[in-house]
Design goal:
Helix content: over 70%
Shape: flat
Number of helices: 2
Strand content: under 5%
Structural class: mainly alpha
Largest sheet: none
Number of strands: 0
Order of helices and strands: HH
Radius of gyration: 11 Å
Distance between the termini: 9 Å
Length: 44
């Protein structure tokens, strides 16, 4: 992945975290995907 893709992925995942905090009743699979995205980012 290029630098721009990593930056964009970080931006959108941070935004998703904020949105999930606003609506804590989101389906559990959404939260699992979000955690997987964070793990992928940490490996980069």
């Amino acid at each position: 992945m290029g630098v721009y893709e990593v930056g964009a992925m970080k931006f959108w995942s941070d935004l998703a975290i904020v949105l999930v905090c606003l609506k804590p009743g989101k389906p559990p699979y959404f939260q699992l995907v979000l955690r997987a995205t964070i793990l992928i980012q940490s490996a980069l």
